Amino acid sequence: MTNQSTNNHYAIEAKKLNVYYGKFLAVKEVSLQIQENKITAIIGPSGCGKSTMLRAFNRMNDLIPSAHADGEILYKGKNIYDPEVDPVEIRRRIGMVFQKPNPFPKSIYDNVAWGARINGFQGNMDQLVEGSLRSAALWDEVKDKLDQNGLSLSGGQQQRLCIARAIAVMPEIILMDEPASALDPIATLKIEELMRELAKNYTIIVVTHNMQQAGRVSDFTAFFNLGENRAGVLEEYGKTDKIFTNPKKQTTEDYISGRFG
C-alpha cells in the first residue's frame, strides 16, 4: 500500500461504487468522501444499502459469495478493490464493530490481545491491552477481572470490549454498524460519548437508524435512499447540522422529520 494520499482531508473515498449481490444492484454509483478524524453517519430507510456501503469500505462484502463490486474506494491513494491489495491488511487498517456485541468466548484480556497476536505484535502486550481498554472507556470496570470470560460482561460492556478489540490492532478507520441498537439508553449514551472521544484519533463511519443519535454524534451525514429497482443511492451528503436543519432535498427533510422510512 502506498502512503501517498489523494487528498489530505479524506480518510477514504468512494468513486462511482456499485455493489451487487448476484444480479441485484444493492448500492448504485455512490461517490462519497469521508473526512479524517470526523464521525460520518450513514442514515436512510431499511434496505437502502447502508450496511452494504459500510462493509464496502473494508471489503467485508467479499465474505458473501454472491457479492461483487465495481467502481473504486480509494484509501491512501490506492483502490482497495485492486487485485494486488490484501483484504486482510485492509481490515486491519479499517476495523469493524458490529450491531450485536460479539466478544470471543475467551478472557477479557485475550479478547483484546487476539488480533494483535495474530498480526505478529512484538511490543508490550499488557500495555497494549490496558491502553485499548482505556481508549474504549472500559479499563476501570474490568482491570481486576481481566481473566474473566468476555461473555460475562453486560451488553454495553461487551460492545466496548469489541471496540477495544478493534482499537488493539491500531486501525486508522473504525466502521460501526448500529453499535448501540442492542443496548439500553444508558449504555447507548456511553457508546456515543466514547465515539466522540475516539474521533480525536480515528475516523469513524457509523450506520444508525436513530436520527437523534446521528444528530448528536456525527460531524457529517450521508442520507441513502431507495432508487430505481430498490438500489441504494446517496441522496444527500453534508455537514450534519446542515442536513438536519436545512437539507437541500425534500426527501431528506421528510426522512429526518419522520414522514417516511
Structure at a glance:
This protein is α/β, with parallel strands linked by helices and 261 residues long. It has helices at 50-56, 87-93, 108-118, 125-135, 139-142, 155-168, 185-198, 211-217, 240-245, 250-256, and strands at residues 10-21, 24-35, 39-43, 67-75, 78-79, 94-97, 173-177, 203-207, 220-226, 232-239.
Mean pLDDT equals 94
How would a textbook summarize the main sheet? 6 strands, mixed
* Low-confidence region ranges: 1-7
**The level-1 CATH class:** Alpha Beta
Rg: 18 Å
**Proportion in β-strands:** 25-35%
Instruction: Categorize the overall geometry.
Output: globular
Share of residues in helices: 25-40%
- Count of domain modules: 1
Distance between the termini: 40 Å
What's the arrangement of strands in the largest beta sheet?
A: 6-7-8-3-9-10
Question: In total, how many beta strands?
Answer: 10
* Class from helix and strand fractions: alpha/beta
SSE succession: EEEHEEHEHHHHEHEHEEHH
CATH homologous superfamily annotation: P-loop containing nucleotide triphosphate hydrolases
CATH topology: Rossmann fold
Count every helix, treating DSSP H or I runs of 4 or more residues as helices.
10
| CATH architecture descriptor | 3-Layer(aba) Sandwich
